[in-house]
Amino acid sequence: MNCPKCGEEFGLYKRDGLEVCYCKNCKAMWIPFPILQKIAGMLDLKTSIINPAEMEPLRIKEEFRVCPSCNKNMQKVFFNGIIVDTCQDCNGIFFDNGELSKFFNLFLKTKVGVVDNIEFLDKFCKEKNVSEVNKAIEEKTIRKSGEVKSYRVEIQSKEQEKKIFSLNGFLVIFFMIMNLLFVWIFFAIGWHFLSVLIIASIAFCCSGFKLLKPQEAMVLTLFGKYAGSLKGAGFHWINPLAQSVTPFVPISLKARTLESGKQKINDELGNPIEVGIIVIWEVQDTAKAMFNVNDYNTFLSAQSDSALRNIVRTYPYDATEGSGKQTLRGDSQEISEKLKAEIQKNVSVAGLNIIDAKITHLAYAPEIAVAMLQRQQAAAIIDAKRAIVDGAVGMVEMALNKLKSDNIVNLSDDDKAKMINNLLVILCSNKEAQPVLKNDIR
Fold first, then answer.
1. Considering the entire predicted model, what is its pTM?
2. Residue 358 in 3-state DSSP?
3. What single string gives the DSSP state of each residue in 256-313?
């Protein structure tokens, strides 16, 4: 196999039972998803990875790269701030140099930054959790020959969108008017049967006229089978026998908003919190939206709620300063990206494209809000006291060193203890204090 980027022949990276094709020139990697899962099993992840090949491709004008395995054009998918090339036939992903670490940074418990692809495998992938690669993936179990085997639950796509043949409606009306002239001529010469036949044909063809507004589409069936989708604003004429799945309401292709109500979900620490999200989405594949699910609006709402619960349960609401943990409150951008990717994975079968997903409401549940507020206040007081004590100890140390270096006075150990006690009381107390030195200073 050759590299789709620079054309060089692929080399083979081997370590701990892991075999990955990579380009020796540009360091890019071609990784089928099962191998990507195996790499995930060697890392310390907080959630299971998502297959970019299952996401809807981007509509961009960049030149497509050729799959090194099947020689078909790969689709470009936006994922975690990078655009990766995926092949839906081979279920493989092509990572440019540095993109492998960017991909996994969304799932790692501790981010590693952007590093070379080979360096990422050498430094961070360890042979420890390979047998547990599929534990976090949604599974169904079947019993066969006394053994339990696990398979990923998937909804197979039954239809793919295609364009139906159509003509300009005004052009068809022009031909109908021309045929009406022939009807008048045939009627004049006595060919009444032929005149009636032409009129009946014109009347039948009138049912083929369709009018679409901007950002609207129609899904059409012919004798029960999917015939194609009609897109594009204007006056169209199609096969009169083709029927619209939604005869009175065309499918809207506009960006729409789904706003979920406040949901009570437990975070990683088990604290009940209230979360609300807004999802901006659009219909991308009209055939999938009509035939793969019963109602894509209801399907999107259910999958959004499920994805929200999965994401919220893996993060704490808040964490102490300096802990380095990602939180729902502090890492809103990363949580939004993860939420968007999770929803996109779930609704791809319905032909929907998730434009954005953001948390609009985030708060502790009312029953624990007061207690959590008190805990935050206590933590803030402790942090403030710690800073005061650290500063006071530094000032006392500076005072003693200054007295000693300038030979102002010589203090015994007892005098130093009393002086330290008085200074700490003055500096750390929130009330005025009157220190007294009872012993004479020698």
1. 0.55
2. strand
3. EEEE---EEEE-TTS-EEEEEEEEEEEE--HHHHHHTSS-HHHHHHHHHHHHHHHHHT
